[in-house]
Design goal:
Helix content: over 70%
Number of helices: 5
Structural class: mainly alpha
Strand content: under 5%
Shape: elongated
Largest sheet: none
Radius of gyration: 18 Å
Order of helices and strands: HHHHH
Number of strands: 0
């Protein structure tokens, strides 16, 4: 598979995850506002959308940097690990959405990423890092 095709596939899977994240977690961001029954749903959605977008600019990207730098050894990360993490997060989000279970898409993404990295370690064992059975 060419590098361009692989990159396009990863971007496509990431967009699918982003879409699923939107309908999976959207209610969480406005549930408190709507539950108070003070404003209507549309103004609540507008306020929630604004602050969800603005938060990255106001508070920065420290969480993303933590996950990107210290969570998994970067020597183990391949495009397939990224795709596996996204696929795991998508599957978990869809299963919990279908069952009506409250979960976090962010936590699903971190869990998928961790699982894919652990699977990768199992595939690239060598004599220096072999696990004993």
């Amino acid at each position: 598979m060419s590098t361009f095709t692989l990159a396009a596939l990863i971007i496509g899977i990431a967009l699918v995850f982003d879409y699923i994240n939107g309908f999976h977690d959207a209610a969480n961001s406005i549930a408190t506002i709507v539950a108070t029954r003070r404003p209507d749903a549309v103004p609540s959605g507008i306020v929630a959308a604004f602050f969800n977008f603005a938060a990255a600019f106001i508070f920065g990207t420290a969480v993303a940097k933590t996950v990107g730098q210290g969570f998994v050894d970067l020597n183990l990360v391949t495009p397939y690990v990224i795709m596996g993490g996204l696929a795991g997060a998508i599957a978990w989000d869809l299963i919990t959405w279908w069952l009506g279970l409250p979960t976090s898409s962010s936590h699903a993404l971190i869990g998928g990423y961790a699982g894919a990295a652990i699977a990768r370690v199992g595939m690239v064992r060598d004599s220096r890092t072999a696990w004993t059975r």
